[in-house]
Every structure is written in structure tokens, then in C-alpha cells.
Specification:
The protein has helices spanning 8-39, 44-53, 59-65, 76-90, 97-100, 103-127, 131-150, 152-158, 164-181, 185-195, 201-218, 223-246, 257-273, 276-288, 295-320, 336-360. The chain has 363 residues and is mainly alpha-helical.
């Protein structure tokens, strides 16, 4: 393996390979998602979302009171669907509706995947001096992108007219930026958009804020400075998510002890099936916590670890409010797998340098 300086020609070919690889995987995703969308009819929830929510509310009503009749009142996805609905009636009615209305979900998944993949690749291209390490980083990015696009939960919601694809995509973008840049204005922007999309942001954003704050205290930074940064970045998204959560309709799906026990059993069966998530999160924490430059990664893994173990409490509160359990309420947990691969790509040069120093340091 050749160490040291960049070979401009080789690096240029790696850049070409990176662009082609990312676009190819993204193209495969779009083709697959459209094909699946075409082959399946609208589900009951999709029909109600379109006819019972989107077509009955104005943009003003969405913004002021949220999406009525939905478990999460955060309106952003429904606003996009309303715009698509108006365009379909005027200009695109020749496109099958089961494809057309799902293009919104496909578009946001595609955009999130492209944005995160290119953010990481451009960052590595600028920072990595070893061309072979850059090739390995590109491979890890492509693997992470493939998992994000094609893992069953994501493809399932990418081919539905539901807000879950946008929610998952914005979570992927927010945490991806956080891994690279830590707390920044772009994390604030992504957090606000996330809060406009799902009440689930009331779990994700405070958890990330707490982990960021905790790690700054561990690093013996000023409590006041850590608190100021946390409030500056995370207060507005929490307020937005809280506002729409307070406007959500009340549901009474859980009315008897038998209902409560049924959904509790379903939750614990699901929760146990996700037992690898705290293990992967724990490994991610151990691999990154010793280097302060990787604090963004550590915070993301610590957040997921925390949310996994809080899930039984979260589920108990959901059932007590009258709503039922569904696995999509915990959609964000599975993002740990693409993030683990992106973390490996990020720490690879540091571990390689550490290995080299240990091998060649004088005894």
C-alpha cells in the first residue's frame, strides 16, 4: 500500500467512481420504489390521509392546527401532498395515482440518501491523504447508502403516501450532519423540519440534545457554555414539535385491559427483536469516545442507545394515552446500521494512523 501523498490522477478517478457509485445505487432505489408503488394499491391509511386529511384542510389550517385525524399532527408531509394533489388534478391525472402520490416519499428518501452520501464523500475527498483509505471509505458510504435505501422498513414507507419516509429522511440528514459537524445551524434547520414532520421529534431531538450536553460536560467544558449551545440549537425544534403534539387528536384504540396487554405483548416482541441495536450502539460509543473529534458520532450512538432502553417507558405512555402500538413509532432506531458504517469510514484514517504509529514507533 502506498502511503503519504495524493496521486492527483488516482484521486480524480476515485472521485468519478464515487459519483457513479452513489448515483447508480440511488437510481436502483428509484427504479425499485416506482416499480413497487405501481404494483400495489393504496392502503386504507393512505386513502384516509388523502381524502380525510389532505383534501379537507387548507394550508393555513395545516400550519395553525396541524393534520387533523392523524396520530401525529405535524403537517409538513401533508402540505407537500396537498401541493401534489392540486398539481395532479390540473396537469398529471394521466399518471396512476398509486405511483404519483408516492413520488413525494420516494423523492425525500432519494434526496436524503444523496445529500448524506455526497456530504460524507466530499468531506473524505478533501481530508483523506491515503488514496486506498479513500477507496475503503467510498465502499462504506455505498454500503450505508444501500442499507438506508433498501432495508425493508425504509423501502416499505418509501412506497407509501405516509409521513414516515419524510420523517426518516430528515432524521437521517440531521444526524448525518451532526456526525460530521456537531451542533450547527444546519442541524437546527433539519431539526425544525423534523419537528414539522412528526411528533416523534419530541423524542429524538431532546435525546440528542441531552447526549450532546452530557458529552461536553464529560470533556470538562463549561456547563454554562454547553447549556447555551444546547438551548440555541435544540430549543426551537422542541417547541415546534411540542406545539403540534399539543394539537394532535385524541384516540381511544386502547379501551380495555385486554387491549393494553395485547399491545404490550406486541411491543416487547418487537423490542426484543431489535436487541442488536444497543449492541451496535455500544460498539459505536467505544470506538469513538476516546477522540473528541468524533463527538458527533458518539452522541448519535449514545442517543440511539438511550432511546432503545427508554422504549418500554415510551410505549407505556403511548398505550396509556389510548393509542395503539406499531413498530413504525420506532422507525428511527434502525438508522443505527447505516450510521455505523459511516462512522467506520469517518474513524478509519485515525485508527490507521494509530496502528502505523504503534507499528513503527521506536521501542
Amino acid at each position: 500500500m502506498i502511503e503519504g501523498r495524493k496521486s492527483p490522477v488516482f484521486f480524480r478517478w476515485i472521485a468519478y467512481l464515487g459519483v457513479i457509485s452513489i448515483l447508480t445505487i440511488s437510481g436502483m432505489f428509484v427504479f425499485s420504489a416506482i416499480k413497487i408503488s405501481y404494483s400495489k394499491d393504496f392502503g386504507r391509511d393512505e386513502t384516509f390521509g388523502l381524502e380525510g386529511t389532505v383534501q379537507r384542510q387548507s394550508y393555513k389550517l395545516f400550519l395553525t392546527w396541524g393534520a387533523r385525524g392523524q396520530g401525529s399532527a405535524s403537517p409538513l408531509d401533508y402540505i407537500f401532498i396537498k401541493a401534489l394533489d392540486e398539481m395532479w388534478q390540473k396537469s398529471f391525472s394521466n399518471i396512476p395515482h398509486n405511483v404519483y402520490y408516492r413520488l413525494n416519499s420516494i423523492f425525500w428518501d432519494l434526496t436524503a440518501g444523496l445529500l448524506v452520501a455526497f456530504l460524507f464523500f466530499i468531506y473524505f475527498y478533501r481530508k483523506t491523504e491515503n488514496s486506498w483509505i479513500l477507496v475503503m471509505q467510498l465502499g462504506l458510504i455505498c454500503m450505508a447508502l444501500f442499507i438506508f435505501y433498501f432495508k425493508s422498513y425504509n423501502m416499505h414507507f418509501a412506497t407509501q403516501m405516509r409521513p414516515y419516509a419524510l420523517w426518516n429522511s430528515l432524521g437521517f440528514v440531521m444526524l448525518g450532519i451532526f456526525m460530521l459537524r456537531g451542533a450547527s445551524i444546519w442541524v437546527l434547520v433539519a431539526g425544525v423540519l423534523l419537528a414539522f414532520t412528526s411528533s416523534g421529534a419530541l423524542l429524538q431531538i431532546p435525546a440528542l440534545a441531552f447526549c450532546r450536553f452530557l458529552l461536553r460536560i464529560v470533556d470538562q467544558e463549561s456547563v454554562v457554555d454547553a447549556l447555551k449551545e444546547t438551548l440555541a440549537i435544540f430549543t426551537l425544534p422542541v417547541l415546534v414539535a411540542g406545539y403540534y403534539a399539543s394539537h394532535a387528536d385524541k384516540f381511544i384504540y386502547v379501551t380495555t385491559p385486554a387491549d393494553y396487554q395485547k399491545y404490550t405483548d406486541e411491543f416487547y416482541s418487537f423490542w426484543k427483536s431489535k436487541g442488536r441495536i444497543p449492541l451496535v450502539s455500544g460498539i459505536g460509543i467505544l470506538l469513538t469516545i476516546w477522540n473528541r473529534q468524533w463527538r458527533g458520532c458518539t452522541a448519535v450512538f449514545l442517543m440511539t442507545f438511550l432511546l432503545y432502553w427508554l422504549a418500554p417507558v415510551i410505549n407505556k405512555n403511548i398505550l396509556s394515552s389510548g393509542f395503539f402500538f406499531t413498530s413504525r413509532q420506532y422507525l428511527y432506531l434502525d438508522l443505527i446500521y447505516p450510521f455505523f458504517l459511516l462512522m467506520l469510514a469517518l474513524v478509519l484514517p485515525g485508527y490507521w494512523q494509530l496502528r502505523k504509529n504503534k507499528l513503527f514507533s521506536p521501542r
